[in-house]
Amino acid sequence: MKSLIKKIALFLLINGLIGTILVPLVVFYGPVPALRQMVVGSIATSRHPQVAEFFLSPEQIQAILGQPDDSSVQTALSNGQQVSLSLQRGSDRIEIEDIHGKRFTGKVLIVHEPTRVKVAVTSQLGESGETVLEMARRVGAVAAINAGGFIDPNGQGNGAFPDGVTISNGEFISVLKEDQKEDIIGLTKKGMLIVGRYSARDLRQMDMADVVTFGPPLVVNGRGTITQGDGGWGVAPRAAIGQREDGALIMVTIDGRQVGSIGATLRELQDLLLQYGAVTAGNLDGGASTTMVYQGKVVNQPSSVFGIRYVPTSFVVMPSKRI
Fold first, then answer.
1. Which residues pair with 211 in a beta bridge?
2. For residue range 109-140, what is the model confidence (pLDDT) as tens digits?
3. DSSP H stretches of helix in the chain
4. Burial of 11 (0-12, 13-18, 19+ CB in 10 A)
5. What is the chain's mean pLDDT, rounded?
6. 3-class secondary structure, 116
7. Closest CA to 304 of 270, 246, 253, 255
8. Which residue range or ranges hold the Phosphodiester glycosidase domain (predicted)?
9. CB of 119 closer than 8 Å to CB of 164
10. Predicted model pTM
């Protein structure tokens, strides 16, 4: 009997080792590009994106992930008819509702007065990020969503250093390179959402109040930028912000990496924003960072098993100034 148990254990051990070797080979080098793209995209938006570099070079990862057609985005930005927004002071209502897709669930928050939305920055900049909930409570926000990306030099994932350019209440908080163009998502002082590639120098000449660095742009001048494929970033938890023609801001979180909601592609996120009437929209940091807060509580289901992720920035909805 003991001999049989040892043989079974040895058999399972050998097959486990073979599987450990073969599965990555099949996923990363096998004949199914869609599987490879989905897995690499999910890793790229996880807490440890560097894992993919054990199997693939940075150039291979970039080729697999691809990007939305940048030429179509730039054409829309430079040549397309600019949407005229009705940014006169509107209702102070905030609406929140559940969303359901074929393989995901999530939340949509609609803020009718766009000037209530600001960028909050971690109080421990350069040392540690904060959770979206902590930021919202500290600044007295009634709602919030995670915003820009961050630099993670030691793989700690603590959100201490925001990537690219960050502006909060008109003040430049961080700038990596003055003339390097980055995908940014920001709001002017009048509450107009801006997405696209801009440098810090460009932004200094614009009427910007709040900016984070992330992307890609998903909707420009009322049209989706992803016209072929799924956007190239696989299936993962997602976050985004968009703006309707009446000026209302649309904040979206899609849960992922869990039973009942595996996540969404960039194309699915884009199409959802278009359904909600977005004329401008940009993809925010997703993956384990995806968090929405409303009335002092986290209302979505963050994917991280380590608790709510620490991030450097959030888009926060401040209390109404109306009496």
1. 167, 186
2. 999 999 999 999 999 999 999 999 999 999 99
3. 2-29, 33-44, 58-65, 70-79, 132-139, 200-204, 266-275
4. exposed
5. 83
6. helix
7. 255
8. 140-318
9. no
10. 0.81
- Phi and psi torsions of 308, nearest 5°: -65, 135
Residue 249 tokens, joined: 């801001």
308, amino acid identity: I
Q: In which residue are the tokens 């620490």 written?
A: 310
**At a CB cut-off of 8 Å and minimum separation 6, what does 246 contact?**
85, 86, 90, 112
Compute how many other C-beta atoms are within 10 angstroms of the C-beta atom of residue 4: 8
Q: What is the pLDDT of residue 91?
A: 76
Tokens linked to 213: 């660095």
Residue 99, helix vs strand vs coil: strand
Residue type at position 286: G
For residue 57, CA distances in Å to 21, 50, 65, 157, 158 come to 18, 10, 12, 21, 25
Residue 190 in tokens: 């009048």
Residues 6+ apart with CB under 8 A from 26: 32
Residue with tokens 């693939």, as numbered in its chain? 56
User: Residue 180, CB half-sphere, CA atoms under 13 Å: how many?
Assistant: 8
Task: With cut-offs at 50, 70 and 90, classify the pLDDT of residue 2.
Answer: low
* Helix, strand or coil, per DSSP, at residue 257: coil
Q: How far apart are CA 118 and CA 121, in angstroms?
A: 10
